[in-house]
Every structure is written in C-alpha cells, then in structure tokens.
Queue: 4 jobs
Job 1
Amino acid sequence: MLEKKLFLYFQEAQKHIDKINLSKEVLKKHYPFTVDTLEELTEIENDKLDVLAFRFAKLQDLLGEKIFRNILNLMGYNTQKPFIEILGELEREGLIDIKKWIAIRNARNAISHEYPYQEDKIIEAINFIIENSSYLINVTYKLQRLFNEIVSKRS
C-alpha cells in the first residue's frame, strides 16, 4: 500500500514539474523580474506566473506533507516525530538541505499571499522561485530514484 501511494505521489509530482517547466519557459524572457517587467506581462504570461507559483507551492506541499514521511517510512525510519526531525533525517541521508528547504518554504508563503504596495517582496519571491525551482525538482527526482531502487530490491 505504501509503495502504491508513493508511486501515485510521484506521478502527481511529475505533473507539477511539467507545469513549472512550461511556465518558466514562457516567462524566461522577463527574468529576472523587476517592477517594469511585471507590469509588461501579457495576460497569458500573468496566467503562467500564477501557474508557476501555484505548482511550485503544490510540489513543495506534496513533498513536505506526503512524500518525505512516506519515503523515510519505506526506508525503515520511525516517522512519528515532528516535521523538523523528519527534515533532519532527510538531510542526514543527503536528500535535502534544511536551510534551503526552509528558504523555499518562506518564498512559497510569500508568493501565496497578496502584499498590496509591496511589489518588491512579490518580485523577490518570484525570482527566488524561478531560481530555486530546479532544486525542488532535483529533490523530487532524487527521492523518486531512491524509491525506485528500494522497490526494485524488494521485487
């Protein structure tokens, strides 16, 4: 059952990754974003920016809420502990960097809230997400490779 859940979670993650990559491709001519470039976006580009932020947040949530504990559980770890300890186990296994994860979480939170008259915060978060989405994607693929190795050894 655990293997089936993780398999489905990784399928969901791939959908988020595909949308992130497509959005980044459409938006790359505007990167790095400034107040001016943000104002110059077409309606389609604005939609892609929304998709980027949404999918980035969804991927990060999926990893943090479903994949991390389950992959550690599959590896034989006790996962009945606070999330920060889960992050510590993942870092010790070389799967994530806690400081990077927390920075990504903070950017994700910043982009998901509206900050009227604080365009600089929004722009900073957008640029951070674009710069760090590859890290989130790489963590996903690293976890997926680990999952595939564990499952193939059990077969």
Note: Residues 68 and 86 are 7 Å apart (CA to CA).
Job 2
Amino acid sequence: MNKLIIFDFDGTIADSMWCWDALGKDMMIANNIPIFDDYDKVIRTMSVPHFAIYMSKYYPQLGTSENIMNKWHEKMIFNYKTKVHLKKGVVPFLEYLKSMHYTLYLASATHLKVLSKALAHFQINHYFDFIITEETIGISKRDPKIYQICMDKAGVDAKHVYIFEDANHAVATAIKLGFHVCAVEDNSMRNHKEEIKQIAELYVSDFSDIEKLKKFIG
C-alpha cells in the first residue's frame, strides 16, 4: 500500500525560520527605521508576501512589495548557503523513506526559486517526487486545497497521508483533514508548543529518533 509523506521545509526540515523572521528587522535597521513594538506578533499573523505588502505600505522608503520580496529572496538564498542547517537526523530519515518506496512530497510557502536553491545546496532535492509551493499554485498552505492537490496527484486517501510540519496552523489543518501528523519542534512556534503537542499524533524535537519515526509511519 502506497503511503504519501508530505514535508514542510522551513522550520521542519531546515532550521531556517529564525532567518525568515529576521528579514524585516534587518531591512528596517539597514534603513534606520525603528523596529515597531509588536514586530514578532505581526510576523506570526502574515505570510511573507503579505508582510512585504505591510512593510511597503507603512515604510514606502523601502520600495514596492515586489522589491522587498526580491531583496528578501536574495538574502535567504545567501542564508541557506551560509547560516542555515538541516534538522538533526533528517537525511537518514529521508533515506529510509525512499528505501521503503514511499511517495515523498514537499509542500512549502517558500518561493520555488528560493526553495530550489536551498534543496540543491543541501543536496536533498532528489528525495522528493513532487514539490508544491504557494506561489506556483496560488493557494496558501492554510488552505486545505493544497493537501487535496497532493492526495489527488499521489492517488491516496487521507488515512495514508503522513504530514511533517512545525507550524500550529498547518498542524491543525492537517489534523482536521484526517491525516497522520508529526509536529517537529521549532523555536518560532515556542508560544504554541503545548497547543501543538496536544493535537499532533507525534511531537519530536528533530529526526534523530528514527525508530520512533518508523513506528509513526507504521
């Protein structure tokens, strides 16, 4: 029986959310703009493109939202190559999943051109049978349709779908759809840790306990 394994990337496979979270602050500092008090709260409520629109609206000196996004993408490509590391144990786990001939998908909010460079840098792109991003299909990861697209493509039903995610909203959406969900700890979700632990089928700090992960997959 085929099983579909869907991974998120930032915060799940890669310890990179801290870099994404710092993009706005770094840009404001570089342009001598004071950091607003609820910065951390604001970025948790918006996608990166929406935050770029927010920044261009309130700080027009930064340029258009498209200009801001382009600069952030360039910075993240640099960050992936110089600052970001994969979560512990993820490569051996991916190797195991491929050896079992499971179908592996990657579903990410990150722009495909940036994600592709990150995957190439970490040399893990060959593990994934299909990559879907918000920008390529025009659907947010908060929308369950993105998972329906994955299920339709793989030809499986919900009980054979296994999700690896760090974000509370994505974990909650996957649970509602009847998927098996393993939440991966990330510092960006520290304020939602207990909430996530209560609803996820499995909660792990990283991928180092491969026996526990094998048991989860079944």
Note: The chain has two domains: 4-16+85-217, 17-82.
Job 3
Amino acid sequence: MIFLQTAVYAHRGASAAFRENTVEAFRGAAAMGADWVELDVRRTADGGLAVHHDAHLADGRAIVETLATELPASLPSLASALEACAPLGVNVEIKNWPDDIDFDPEARIAESVARAIEGRVQPIIVSSFHAPTLERVRAIGPGVPTAQLTFLLKDPDRAIEAALAAGHVALHPHDGTVTPHLVELAHARGLALNVWTVDDPERIRELAEMGVDGIVTNVPDVALAALGRGGRRPSDSTKE
C-alpha cells in the first residue's frame, strides 16, 4: 500500500544520518525524498535567529547571550536554513518556553521569524509549545499558517477547540497521544494533524492508516519506505 496523503517531515533534518539542524541535514532530507523539514529557532544576543534545539551550545554558552557572529560555523541562521531546505516545506518551531534561559514573555522572536519567512515561495508553517508566542506570530502575520505543539492531551476535544479558536491550521501532538478518535475529531473540525516524533516503521504505517496528515521522523528514508514511497539514502550520509 502507498500512503500518498501522509507527508514526511524530517525532524531537525535527516538527523539520524547527519548532525541535526545543519545545512547538511536539511540537504540530506531533500536527497532522501522528504516532503518537509522540521527545524528549531532561537534568538541570539543581537536579535539574530539561530537554528538550534537546545538553549545552550555544546560548549555551555547560552545562545541568547551569544552574538550571531560568534556562533559555531555549523549552526545556520534561519535564512540560510530555509535556503538549504528549498523547495521542501519547512516547519519552523519557535523555542520560547518559560523554563528556558532565553524565554521572552513579549515573544519578540515572533516578529523576527515573521520577517524571515516573508515572501518565501516554499510552504512554511510556524509551530511552538508556547501558545502566546504563536498568538504574537499571528498578530504580526495574520496569513502565516501556525500549529500548536502539544505533549499529553488529557482532553483532545478541548485541545482541538483551543487550536481552532487561536486560528491555527494544525495540531502537532506527541505520538503517544494520537488515536483514531483524535484524528477523526481534528479532521471533522478542519484541523490538520502532524505527529511527532516517530521512527518505528510499523507505527508509521499505523498512523498513516489512521489518516494523519504528517509524520515527523528522524529517519525520513525509513518513513518513506514504510509508506511505500521508497526513500533514497545519500551514499555519503554520515552523522558528525
């Protein structure tokens, strides 16, 4: 069976084969045949946008306390990451959480992200766990597609209604909370469902059979094969 309706999102690029959130990982995802790339963005000390998952670099420096020009060469800006991902769609996850050192209650990063994606031809969706940050994105760029990221969903109906009320086009739930009932509820209300983060081929097929719209995975080649779409692995894939 071939699941054409289920998009494959390369989590931080092809992160099982390359160093995550790097130009190489994004290009590797494209070479493997992924439909989308998922990446993380944080703000630097001078207001730049750095593509990195954690709030701190490997050497212990906080990104928010580091100038963009002082970041490691392997760490791309959002602009260079988008270029590397083209023409794939990109899920830009904004990192702005109260427990992190770079948390900004005013969510000023939202304006920077909106400017960075303005005019881009490739499909882009902006997601975050922090609902007020997404609210700020929508206030600045009403036409920007947004998605609410969630962990445990104790009340799926409430989560879906909240996402719709906020103007989001999608809900991005953790795999452990996804059931056929959730998929049915979301689709009945016109909300897309993109699930994170799934590497097991059997579970990938199970989710596709439920009808989820997208699957975020560290192994896009494995996911594509599980969905009956082949999947191409670059011969020079190496994880740094």
Note: DSSP finds eight helices and nine strands in the chain.
Job 4
Amino acid sequence: MRTRWITLIGIAIATCSASLPAQTYPDKPIRLIVPQAPGSATDVFVRHFTPKWGEILGQPVVVENRAGAGAIIGTEAVAKSPPDGYTLLLGGSQTHAINKSLYTKLSYDPIADFTPVGRIGAQAMLLVTNASVPVKSVPEFLAYARSGKANLNYASSGNGSTAHLAGSLFSAEAGLKAQHVPYKAVAQGLSDLLSGEITMMFYPYSALQQHIQAGRLTVLAVATEQRASYLPQVPTMTEAGFPSMVLSPWFALYAPAGTPRRIVDTLYSALEQTMKDPDVARRLGSTGTDIWLAGPDEMARFGANEIARYRKIVELAGAKAD
C-alpha cells in the first residue's frame, strides 16, 4: 500500500510539473526598443553595453530603433507589449519624466504602464556652437546673440527632447529670442550646426565628441553641478550664471507593467554584472557616460521624484511640444 501511494504521489507531481510553464528565462532573444533614431546619444550609449549584457543573460539582446513623436512611438509600443520579459524599453528622463509634463495628452502612463528594471547611467548636456561663431564662453555668446549679428536658433533631436528643453530653458533665462528647430534625427541637426545654419545646441558628449576633438565645434559650458572629468577646462552652466541649468539625461530599463519580479531580478542582476565589466565601463566613460546604477525599487522612487522635478523645469522653460 505504501509503495502504491508513493507511486501515485510521484505521478501527480510529474503531471503537475508538466502542466507548469518552463521557469527558464530567457530562452530566446530579447528585443530592446530604443525610442530614438540611430546615431543619437541614446543609440550610441545602448550599443556599448548590450552585447555584454546579452552574453551574461545567455541570449542576444536585439536593439530596435523606433523613433518619433518625442520618443512616444517606441515607448507606447513597449507599454502595449506582453509582460514576458522579451520586449523591453531603453527609456529615461525624456520618456519617463519630461513627457509627463510636456504633453497634455500622453498615450502612456510612465508609472502605471511600466515595471522598472533599473537605472543605468547619465550623460551631461553640453552647450556647443559652430567653431566659426566668434565666441569662447557663455558671456561672449550672450553678447554676440544680443548684438543682432546672429540668426539665433537652436537644434534639438525632436520636440520634447532634453535638447529642446535645455535650449528653451536657456533662452528663457537669458532673455534670448531663439527659434527652436527640431529634427527627426540628431545627425541632421548636427549637420546644420556644423554648416552654420544652426547657432547653438545642447547635446551629450557622445554624439559631439569627434567634432569637438576635430575643432569643428566649440564647447561653451556643461550643464552639470560639477565640471566634467573628460572636459575639465569647460565651466558649468552654474559658473556661467545659470544655476537651474543642471540637466543630465539619465537612462533606465523598463518592462511592461505586470512583468514577473523573477524576470526583473534576472535582468537587473545581469545588468549589474555588465556594468562592472572593465571594458564596458571604459567604453561608456569615453563617451561621457557616468554609470549610475539603481535597482527596481530605488528606480521606482527615483522616477516619481524626477516627474515632479522636471514638471518645474518644463514650467520654468515654458517649453511646449508644438
């Protein structure tokens, strides 16, 4: 009788186990949606760590650029995806903080529609001009802008981007009437900045690096609290008299709302290992990226605070997603 019961129990356990879904994750490639165009600061950033991240996860991480509408198109696509851990978002300050205040009717909720996986890092915004503009500092630029000699405008990577917000805030605080010129891709904006069609631009170092080193662009200031280690000679916007100009776009990973915690923990654990890899850290550092890790719970608190912080900045700048 005892043997019979053991046999029956064994059959029952085997039957139940067969009916349960496999617990192995991931068992196929992961799609990471980047809601900005190829060649943007976000795109450059993500391609420095995804190969190693995929290696640690044991499955390739496939980057898919889905740009447009102030990063809304790609972000909304992830919000509507199955919460199975196979479609993720490389979001950040624009998608999960700025857009909430910039758009009166946002097609996704940055808190309710997503599960935070973790914060990764941040990049400082630089104020740059074409090297042909006869200025070397923010005070000189302001004098030049107010002289009437310049067709004053600024480029951004699209309406609602951090570059748009930074240019708008600087113009408002400096009392300048600068026209915003949004581009669908940062490469187009940079091309016009380099040709002199655009007067100024705020953008992270990663996409500007080669042009700065070649002497085609002049860096006037960095929008951080402290000077950047990779450009120690460049003053901060605070030093130039604009203490509210502290804008460092941050990057974070998000999964659709309802993604199981075990999947989130697997993703973040692999991410943490990735960022400790010396080669990954070196390559990210060379692009002006500060690794700034935070797990799912801390990221949730940080994200809510950033929505409130950027609401004040958007109001101060008077920026609109026109």
Note: Residues 125-222 form a domain with the D-Maltodextrin-Binding Protein; domain 2 fold (CATH 3.40.190.10).
